[in-house]
Amino acid sequence: MAPEQNKLPVITFNTETLNPSNGAWQSTSHAVRQALEDYGCFVLATNKIPSDLRDTVFTLSKDLFRLPTETKIKNTSDILGFGYGKYAFMPLWEYFGIEDGATLEATRCFTDLLFPLGNNAFCEAAFEYMKLLSEIHNCVLRMAFDSYGVEPKHYDRLTESTLYLARFMKYRAPNEGEGAIGLPAHSDKSFLAILDDNDVKGLEVEMRNGEWIHHEPSPSTFVVVAGEAFMAWSNGRVYAPMHQVAMRTTQKEVIRYSLGLFSFMRTTVEVPDKLIEDDKSSLLFRPFSHLDFLKYVVTEDGRTSKCAIKSYTGITVGATVDP
Ligand SMILES: O=C(O)CCC(=O)C(=O)O
Ligand SMILES: [Fe+2]
């Protein structure tokens, strides 16, 4: 599973790898864990999502962005990044979030709000697609947890409490004089994200050594990105990479659409004992409420911190005190 230089590792999920009693499950689980530790990110190749469903969701989601602004802004949320967003300082980027977006109920509420005359085709396709992404998400998590050898109760507790954010994003090409950055460099505050795009380049990921990988999209592949909450759960083993979206094109007609499913835990996130005992390392992150962490992220401290999760709940080990 060694990646080519300057490429993200590629991991395939198929019927063989997805059967836990098959040897391929174990080797794939280790590859997942390795990729999350080394890159915090990997390309997932799977045919679990039918290509016509994917095409339909991308086509129908374009309707969202054609709506008048007064309709778009009706999609609000108390949590930053969960509602509708378009900001003067990020002029290329626009997004809609659906809180609890892997459920039919929430997808229907969102659809009714934005399309009062109805848009059942969007609602059904978006729900079906996000539900499949949530299954892929759970599979990645289960593999990573298995590879760490933590008891299944840890997986059950977290996945039963998961709040999913489904996000629909659009990036336009820059006008003359505008920069290429659509979404500035950040690490995700989620546990894990599964991303997809309309095969238009743009996602760039920083490796541990500071070099940036420009991801080459392709149909039937997704990008899995670990967030800061996963890093804390793993006591710092999983890497939460900085990443950004850049529209490095002068062709005005190029538009990048992306879809993402981000997980947040409603229950306390804590490092399993096994991960401390294994290498006798010290606990680096106190147990924390993931949803409270999202409130911290928008405070002055949270916004200015180099790594929000470390300043929120990190424990400094072996700090020396100046005499
Ligand atoms: O559009 C993408 O591919 C990435 C989006 C992203 O990084 C985010 O929403 O946090
Ligand atoms: Fe992100």
Strand order of the largest sheet: 1-2-10-7-12-5-4-3
- Ligands bound, unique: 2-oxoglutaric acid, fe (ii) ion
User: What Rg is obtained from the alpha carbons, in whole angstroms?
Assistant: 20 Å
User: How far from one another are the termini?
Assistant: 49 Å
- Summed up, the helix count is 11
Order of helices and strands: EHEHHEEHHHEEEEEEHEEEHEHHH
**How many strands?**
14
Share of helix among residues?
25-40%
What would a concise description of this structure say?
By secondary structure, this protein is α+β, with helices and mostly antiparallel strands.
Structure description:
- The chain has 323 residues and is of the alpha+beta class.
- Helices cover 36% and strands 24% of the residues.
- The protein is built from 11 helices and 14 strands.
- An 8-stranded mixed beta sheet has the order 1-2-10-7-12-5-4-3. Strands 6-11-8-9 form a 4-stranded antiparallel beta sheet, with no helix packed on it. Strands 13-14 form a two-stranded antiparallel ribbon.
- Strand 1, helix 1 and strand 2 form a beta-alpha-beta unit.
- The chain is globular and about 55 Å long.
- The chain starts with 9 loop residues before the first strand and ends in a 10-residue tail after the last helix.
- The chain binds 2-oxoglutaric acid and fe (ii) ion (FE2).
